[in-house]
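A favour, since you know our structure tokens better than I do. Would you make up a two-line entry for one protein for me to read? Write everything out right here, beneath this request.
=====
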Amino acid sequence: MVMAMAMGSEKVLLLDVASNINRVPSNYIRPITDRPNLDKVGSIDASIPLVDLHDVTGSNDVSQQIGRACEDYGFFQVKNHGIPVEVIHKMMQVSREFFSMPQSERLKSYSDDPSKTTRLSTSFNVKTEKVSNWRDFLRLHCYPLEDYLHEWPSSPTSFRDDVAEFCKPVREVALRLLEAISKSLGLERDYINRAIGQHGQHVALNYYPRCPQPELTYGLPGHADPNVITILLQDDVPGLQVLNNGKWLAVNPIPHTFIVNIGDQIQVLSNDRYKSVLHRAVVNSYMERISIPTFYCPSPEALIAPASELIDEDHPCLYTSFTYGEYYQKFWNRGLAKETCLDLFRTSHYI
């Protein structure tokens, strides 16, 4: 009865109940046909590209490597990205400290209103989803910093400084990667930066508690990202898996590197030359996990469409134009799903 009352509380977070249970509550259990099948997951360690960004702005070879990774995987890892190790360590440490605070302190940031630009919540969309995800998260808008910094939690005391110090260089990496992707497509270096309008940047602090029955649930189920590009910092606990050639593959962490994946908007801008791929987060029974994705987004009013330079008789235009705000609304209403929203905007959908 205590468990039921806790799970039914309006503002309860998963981490506040997960440590006191030995079975997954029924609202987290996936149907048999939609479970992780963890014994059938392979490893991608030997094949996912690891790109050295040391000379990303001046090297054709680096942009070609990134282009091949976008075409073959939709994912790659980066090293020599320019973000200091101490900045990474402080970001991970302050994230742990935030989720370790007393419940009363954490809940000051709680909201189930997705329009809030700073909010702590659980699962994905608690108002519409039928099955919950084994995750709590703190999502922060972080560009321009001065517009949002005052909204962020003031505890731990170093939170705002440490997160701001992390967000600024990650944005610089995102801009360099978007230039390299534009270049790899044969477009002007600043094409994608111009196409997405006034840029948005969000960061999520994802907390995945230990799970007594990880085979029954997900941290996040298979989905593609709706944004332009995602840059992921992980701790040393595995959990990210990517769908490649119909098989789920585990992407194990490499210290001080970042995982990069392209989102749906790159797939549209590239007219399907590059693919936004499905990925998921699984959980385990032995250790909590923290992941920190940075989502780089178009402005809501940005008009997204395939680049005209990538359209010809052999490569017809595959998408109608749409605003990012229109796209994201459909993504949010649909929830995390293996079928992306892209098909709703294909030209064939309107014939």
Summary: DSSP finds ten helices and 15 strands in the chain. The radius of gyration is 20 Å. Residues 1-9 have pLDDT under 50 and may be disordered. The longest strand covers residues 200-208.
